[in-house]
Design goal:
two-stranded parallel sheet, mainly alpha, Tyrosyl-Transfer RNA Synthetase, Rossmann fold, binds tryptophanyl-5'AMP, single chain, three-stranded parallel sheet, 13 helices
């Protein structure tokens, strides 16, 4: 069975972009692949966090993994800090990453370009830790949204570099980026990615949004004056984004099909249908989320997930340390 690994960093509440670009694929693949889905809490603290809020977001993230359909009997769900090898291999990977490579990472560059001050060292070296997250498990594939592809590509470079230097240590993983829905855009500004750091709160639909509020966000999404539902992300970015959302939430319905249904109809009709799709999905997730939240399912999933993940990760870390010459072999 081929292996897959991915993670989410709940620095805020999970949103529809996380679901469409990543989480729904974890669920889809759990039957076919050996799945490792973790919560990247070390990555969360690369930017300042309120401890109480972070704790809530972490628990919500696990609850949402389960509510979206990840099954702990099939997928290994765990908290990054429960498997200590992540931080340890993260440091080793950091020592094998060039500063030039980190300088080229767009997420860091974007923050610098915005003039944000007091960025942490952890934020800068974040891609090295992400490489460790992945390489510890020798996955074949890493399902991610478009924005994380560059990090997985750096991971491949680091794996190849270390394999050349020390002998084969790591499988070189491939990013798995879906054709539709890998970059869901903000509803209020379709030139920007839907993201947790949406200051207006109008462009981002959270998985735990009240259904009325979610519907309102879709109905007031920015569109254009072309007056036709047509898939063309360059000249009709707002409409194309809504089409991607609709397609992803309805079994990857073809764009041509959606165009045909709304031919000659107004944007109001189209938006109402998109809102129905979004609210139908959120309602299912939220109902299950409420069941999961106060059950013992979260703790049980994390415990068994971390136990299984630790066995693999500890073995890999030991092999790496030995290959590098970091261990003293007892006589
Ligand atoms: P994060 O938490 O920013 O995002 C989690 C996943 O959601 C995807 N995503 C999107 N997809 C489509 N449209 C959007 N608007 C959108 N926003 C986010 C992301 O591409 C991602 O797949 N560094 C990672 C977490 C991580 C990780 C890893 C992932 C840490 N270690 C190892 C894979 C493997 C991150 O911050 O994702």
């Amino acid at each position: 069975m081929k292996r897959m690994l991915s993670g989410i960093k709940p620095t805020g509440q999970l949103h529809l972009g996380n679901y469409i670009g990543a989480l729904r694929h974890f669920v889809e693949y759990q039957d076919e692949y050996e799945m490792f889905a973790f919560i990247a809490n070390l990555h969360c603290i690369t930017v300042p966090q309120d401890p109480k809020e972070l704790q809530k977001n972490l628990r919500d993230c696990v609850a949402l993994y389960l509510a979206c359909g990840l099954d702990p009997a099939k997928a290994n769900i765990f908290l990054q800090t429960d498997v200590r090898a992540h931080a340890q291999l993260g440091y080793i990977m950091c020592c094998h990453t060039y500063m030039g490579e980190l300088n080229r990472m767009t997420q860091f560059k974007d923050k610098m370009a915005k003039g944000e001050t007091n960025l942490s060292g952890g934020l800068y070296t974040y891609p090295s830790l992400m490489a460790a997250d992945i390489l510890l498990y020798d996955p074949d594939y890493v399902p991610v949204g478009e924005d994380q592809k560059q990090h997985v590509e750096l991971t491949r470079d680091l794996a190849i570099r270390m394999n050349n230097r020390y002998g084969t240590l790591f499988k070189v993983p491939e990013p798995l980026v879906a054709k539709v829905g890998a970059r869901i855009m903000s509803l209020s500004d379709p030139s920007r990615k839907m993201s947790k750091s949406d200051e207006t709160n109008k462009g981002c639909i959270y998985l735990l949004d009240d259904l009325k509020a979610a519907r309102k966000k879709v109905m007031s999404a920015v569109t254009d004056n072309c007056a036709r539902v047509h898939f063309d992300p360059v000249s009709q970015p707002g409409i194309s984004n809504l089409m991607q959302i609709m397609s992803s939430l309805s079994d990857d319905r073809p764009m041509g099909d959606i165009e045909a249904e709304f031919e000659g109809k107004g944007y109001g009709d189209f938006k109402r249908s998109v809102a129905d799709c979004v609210c139908g999905t959120l309602e299912k997730i939220q109902t299950r989320y409420q069941e999961v939240l106060d059950s013992g399912e979260i703790d049980a999933a994390l415990e068994s997930g971390a136990a299984r993940a630790s066995v693999i990760a500890d073995e890999k870390l030991a092999a790496v340390q030995k290959a590098i010459g970091m261990e003293i072999i007892l006589k």
